[in-house]
Amino acid sequence: MVDRSAALESLTAQERIVLMGRLRDSLDSATAAPLSPALAAELERREAESDADPDAGIPWDALRDELQARLR
Predict the structure, then answer these.
(1) Model's pTM, two decimal places?
(2) How many Å apart are CA 21 and CA 18, to the nearest integer?
(3) Phi/psi of residue 17, each to 5°?
(4) Which of 32, 57, 67, 71 could bridge 27 with an S-S bond, Cβ 3.0-4.6 Å?
(5) Quick one: three-class SS letters along 4-40?
(6) Distance between CA 52 and CA 57 in Å, rounded?
(7) Residue 24: its pLDDT value, please?
(8) Collapsing DSSP states into helix, strand and coil, what is residue 64?
(9) CA-CA distance, 11 to 18, in Å (whole number)?
(10) Cα separation, 49 vs 36, whole angstroms
(11) Distance (Å, whole) CA 68 – CA 62
(12) What DSSP string runs through 34-58?
């Protein structure tokens, strides 16, 4: 494997995030991170719960503000 650490270190944070996304998208999700039956069932349950009541969550702005207030 070629050492590309110097090139990676020269990337901005945004460029690194884009690169991570491209790398993740290039993986075969079935083999890269297979889901256990229990995890698959939990994700399906959460998706159904979210679909049943889409307004139940907290808007990102409110959650971010709450978390920042806790850190102060």
Answers:
(1) 0.45
(2) 5
(3) -65, -45
(4) 32
(5) CHHHHHCCCHHHHHHHHHHHHHHCCHHHHCCCCHHHH
(6) 12
(7) 83
(8) helix
(9) 10
(10) 20
(11) 10
(12) PPPHHHHHHHHHHHHHHHH-TTSS-
Predicted local confidence at residue 61, as pLDDT: 94
Which pLDDT does position 5 carry in this prediction? 84
Residue 43's pLDDT is 93
Q: Which residue has the tokens 């409110």?
A: 62
Place of tokens 């971010």: 64
| pLDDT tens digit at each of 72 positions of the chain | 667 888 889 999 999 999 998 998 898 877 777 889 999 999 999 999 999 998 888 999 999 999 999 998
CA distance 52 to 55: 9
